Amino acid sequence: MTQDSWLLLASMALLALAVALWLWGTSRTPLSSASAGGPGGGHFLHKGLPPGPRGLPFLGNLLDLGQDHLPSHLTRLARRYGPVYTLTCGSSTLVVLNSSDVIKEALVRKWSDFAGRPISYTGSLVSGGGRSISLGDYSEEWRVQRRLVHQTLQRYSHSSLQALVRRQALALREVLIGYNGRAVDLAEDFTVAASNVITTLTFEKEYGKESEELQQLHSCLNNIVSLWGSPWISALDSFPLLRKLPNRPFSRLLKEVARRDDIIGRHIKEYKLRDNQSEDSITSSLLKGIEQSIGSEDGVRLTDTHLHMATVDLLIGGTETTAAWLSWTLAFLLHRPQVQTQVYEEMCGVLEGRYPQYSDRPRLPVLGAVISEVLRLRPVAPLAVPHRALRDSSIAGYFIPKDTVIIPNLFGAHHDPSVWSEPNSFRPERFLEGGGGRARDLLAFGGGARLCLGETVARTELFLFTAYLLRDFLFLPGGEGAGLPDLEGEASVVLKVKSYKVIAVPRPLETDLAVGPPNQQSGDTAL
Ligand code: HEM
């Protein structure tokens, strides 16, 4: 439990007491008459909902939801309560899905029942009144907005994406060479590279690491993501009475949202004034979509807010995820340096000195296996984004009433021992022929109607960035006493590795396979 969570719990307890006294004094209705004895203890729960851990009166399972590494905690609960269980928080009922089978049943097979997003007070404030793709509820308007962005991303992926990622990968190479073998934390460099892909896609702009504009944009988007994931803010959705109390994190969130809207608004305005807008950019495409939607027959009218929020979606969805994944990959490779050598040797054998292309994927299975294994062990959006049941439905035979919040625990599904042998070990070989790992059980990008909108962009980035980095450099531990990175990580909306340092040693241009990393370790890395 974090200090924040304890403070929150104390406030909640006081509030609960006040509410209980108030209810007792005004209605004289015994509290127990409103409880149906479900796992929440203080809530009416529909009969037939999956069972789950008993919660505190009024607060429900707030203590479970306030845990530091929530994906791991939810995974541990699944060992006790099974792959589907219920939690409550204030007036919300949450059903947590922890296996690939039940997640696919809800998100893919029954997608039309579970494609909604929870409609919440804070969600509406950060998403321009629900007009973002990631937080907007399922509606015709949302479908038109998502389709437009999806089509543009697909078009771009076929035409210019590879060249764009290659340019960023080469720029990253120059930055790493400039470190001259010093031990450095590369997290920020990865963020700049991933972010430049998205800012070029959206408004054709690239930034250097020192750019003040970029720093501002990132600090503001990062603050929004971490504040929005904090228990102080989510409590406002479940306990409306708390909105009446002063709440510093919430005031900060509102300020950051205003700053974000100012920065993005300025960019879009500048972009509109440019004469040389590329047909390919998301902004051009959405501006055209907005024009066409005026007077369209389906009655859907897109506005500047849809364009604004789609830009925010791509910047938030596409920057920290890819950057966090790259940091995880190097962290795991430092733990098993022989895998780094295998990838390098594979590239030397197949590419004969040239840089890889995305179409080389089938000829580089070891690299592909590393990418899959890191996506499995550390899905960077470990709990996806919460879904909402649009109608009464069922999962694994349990009744799921309309409006239930569904949490797909992708981290849990990827650590399910009935699907993955040695689920906690970094073993890319499980994805090689005969290794037993099935790529179809990976759910790192979610599934169904809400499948990650940037999956094609992300897959191109993961492949090319990793291939370029491992072709050009040998990575060695660079922490104090050359310690290896901690592999547990910090889980918020994005699952990130704790900061660590690494030394990037340039590989000789003429491939010299005799040179492998010193101090090779053998065996698996038990996490
Ligand atoms: C390693 C990289 C990435 C991973 C693992 C990842 C994973 C995910 C996951 C799990 C979801 C939630 C799916 C659900 O609600 O069921 C999601 C949604 C989303 N992602 Fe990604 N993502 C990645 C990169 C990207 C990139 C590069 C972009 C943008 C170019 C992006 C844009 C989005 C958007 C807009 C959504 C919301 C989709 C919707 O609600 O319909 N993501 N992503």
From TrEMBL:
Entry binding sites for heme: 452
Membrane topology listed for this record: Peripheral membrane protein
GO terms under biological process: hormone biosynthetic process; progesterone metabolic process; steroid biosynthetic process
Top-level taxon of the source organism: Eukaryota
GO molecular function: heme binding; iron ion binding; steroid 17-alpha-monooxygenase activity; steroid 21-monooxygenase activity; steroid binding
Signal peptide: 1-20
Any one Gene Ontology cellular component term annotated for this protein: endoplasmic reticulum membrane
Pfam families: p450
Co-factor(s): heme b; heme
Bilayer-spanning residue ranges: none
Subcellular location per the Swiss-Prot or TrEMBL entry: Endoplasmic reticulum membrane; Microsome membrane
Keywords (A to Z) from UniProt: Endoplasmic reticulum, Heme, Iron, Lipid-binding, Membrane, Metal-binding, Microsome, Monooxygenase, Oxidoreductase, Signal, Steroid-binding, Steroidogenesis
EC number assigned by the record: 1.14.14.16
InterPro entries: Cyt_P450, Cyt_P450_CS, Cyt_P450_E_grp-I, Cyt_P450_sf
Family of the protein in this entry: Belongs to the cytochrome P450 family.
Protein's recorded name: Steroid 21-hydroxylase
Gene symbol of the encoding locus: LOC115545507
